[in-house]
Model the fold of this input.
Amino acid sequence: MNDRRDFKGYFGAEPAPCWPDAARLAVSFVVNVEEGAELSIGDGDPRNESVYEIREEVEGAPDPCMETHFAYGTRQGYARIAGAFDRYGVKATFSTCGRVAERSPWLMQDIVARGHEVSCHGWLWQRHAHMTRAEEEADIERTHAAIKAACGVAPVGWHTRSAPSVNTRDILIARGDFLYDSDVYDDDIPRMTGGHVILPYAFDTNDMRFSPGGGFVQARDFSEYVIGAFDRLYAEGGKAARMMSIGLHLRLIGRPGRIGGLEDVLAHIAAQDDVWIAPRREIAACWAGAQKGAA
Done:
């Protein structure tokens, strides 16, 4: 049977570690920047976003409540997260929606000035699953252009909100200016298709679980879970390549009752030897170089 899906992956033949300085584990902090790109009737979108700190959708009218929940991320959350990264010397990837870059260029400029990567997260904070190819090509182009204009640096990474379309990766590869995408959740090891790198992402080691019904309530819920995942991957990384993604959101982990969870994770990782913390563009470039050298 020639299955369209690959359920085997690297089973039985996992690649050896290839990270710089013989690191056992590559760690990627991804900060999702969506504030101002959420669906909002007030911004001319067809409906409002329905999930923030509670589940409640206002239909047929602007929702100032929802808008202020999102705005907390740029007004307060970002400074706490950026400050924590600075204290531990961590460089992250800020996965950013195009409309955010267009509306808040000051934020993009500050991210770049601190040495972080800005990658693409769609024009709006929305799924691509039902887009036509032409619609998606336009969305990707608009996002790429907005981030390049705001940052002064062309983005090389892409991640769709939850569900890409069947065309997303083909479009990215055909453009030729994206090094990687993160639209998979099925591994702890990167892979490649041609010269394009696929970096796995994760929804479990992610502050999105502070959302309603997600399971995280206290800051320690986040830190204990993420540290547990880190310790396991660190142990496994001595024998085979391992990569860990830690997902963050300005408006979620940036809250005063939650930021301590991120600080505890940073302190724990910083206390370990042989760990490489890097933006995703560097991880993708390293993986591509290692695979080319092994060919």
